[in-house]
Amino acid sequence: MFPHTAPDPRIGRRLDDPVVETPAFLVSDAKLEANLTAAKERAKALGVTLRPHLKTHKSIEIARRQMMSPEGPATVSTLLEAEYFAANGVTDLIYAVGIAPQKLGRVERIRASGCDLKILLDNVDAARHVSAYTAARSIEIPVLVEIDVDGHRSGITPESDLLLEVVKSLTGGARFVGLLTHAGASYDKEGAANARGAARRERDGIVLAADRLRAEGIEVPIVSVGSTPTVFAAEDETGVTEIRCGVYAMFDLFMTNLGVCTLDRIAGSVLTTVIGHQKEKGQVIVDAGWMAMSRDRGTARQHEDFGYGLVCDLAGRPVRGLDVRMTGANQEHGILQAVAGEALKPEDFPVGRRLRILPNHACPTAAPYEKLLLVEDETLTVKAALDHVRGW
């Protein structure tokens, strides 16, 4: 299903070698390692299991460095990811998106392959669908119920009577194994105080839900929380068994604006080539448009609007502080411009010059690329071309 191919000709080549065509998604090996280590240390300090979310890179090579063991635990956002990681030996997964009934056949097949895949739901209808499916097939599927701690997206509020109703609707082979939440509000405001508050609400909300179920005699073995801002801001995770986070592996400009990381911790970037100029407008045109950078403009509502990304030199250093950004994009064209100081000059950005663009959001930016290129920072050479999965 996921065949291995011949060695990639880009391995061992410098980033300015013509063999390394653009656009390409680059991963700084040293920064990646520092980010992965930081999350492991945080989880250990908080006394919880780290269950990393693999959706940012979707790559088994990075996952093996990120997880606590080759078997997991880990989190995925699509069943294709679950199939890919299960085929590569990951046996402890949570599919952290509410289950659609027609996907239960794929869930069954993944579990039959030897992977303990757990699913998520937050309503009685879904619980009954899973219960009926497992009864008809005489199989077991472990289920987590999603808790809404901040009104961000989906889930059941910790105080709701619906919580007990949903759990009791899981019958037969639909086995309740715990609760899961995501502190999405940690992305809404900048600053450490907001992240700490979101982490407290996340922990307090899901622990309250777990306590309510235990008071009814229901075991809650898994109490799962997580987001990148809260894993680094949490002060107390008493009552929580595991923490999930994903974008921390790469970080991005959105996380920088939140104050979760600094620019020099952003591990993912897009390699691009200058293809032209609009001298009168002070613009430089590159071959990475919104297909290469994604349409995510999340920083537009933050204190620094980076447009489609921050422009860096070949070594990944911002070319002029925060001044030069991808201010516009078409499908395959990126428009670079200075937002402060003097206009860009064509002689400083000759046709053929290679640049790196830091993305607003690492997850959608990395997603469409066939391979992720792992880069040795000191030599600016490609160390590896990493497989990853694309699609659903």
From TrEMBL:
Pfam families: Ala_racemase_N, D-ser_dehydrat. The keyword Lyase applies. One of its GO terms (biological process) is D-serine catabolic process. Keywords: Lyase. It comes from the Bacteria. GO terms for molecular function: D-serine ammonia-lyase activity. The keyword Lyase applies. Residues 267-376 form the D-serine dehydratase-like domain. InterPro entries: Ala_racemase_N, D-amino_acid_metab_enzyme, D-ser_dehydrat-like_dom, D-ser_dehydrat-like_sf, PLP-binding_barrel. Belongs to the DSD1 family. This is Alanine racemase. It comes from Sutterella megalosphaeroides. The lineage of its organism: Bacteria, Pseudomonadati, Pseudomonadota, Betaproteobacteria, Burkholderiales.
